[in-house]
Specification:
six-stranded antiparallel beta sheet; globular
Length: about 80
């Protein structure tokens, strides 16, 4: 299951991470949380904090997407 989610996230990073969300909601201290899609019963969400995009699932996995202008990479957060 984690491999599927990782493959989906890598695909998002290279094929348009910033597509429009299906829905979004302002939570907490003004964070906009966006619902992106559902695959095999797992929902994928995104929010941005400090210029970094964070993707998380309804199963608890979280990935931070970072860029230095030339390269983009993901970092698993446990």
């Amino acid at each position: 299951m984690k491999k599927i989610i990782l493959v989906v996230l890598v695909g998002l990073m290279f094929s348009g991470c910033y597509n429009d969300a299906q829905s979004s909601e302002i939570l907490g201290n003004g964070f906009q949380v966006e619902y992106l899609f559902e695959k095999d019963g797992v929902k994928m969400y995104r929010f941005i904090d400090g210029g970094r995009s964070y993707y998380f699932t309804s199963k608890g996995e979280t990935i931070s997407v970072q860029s230095n202008g030339k390269s983009t990479w993901g970092e698993n957060i446990k």
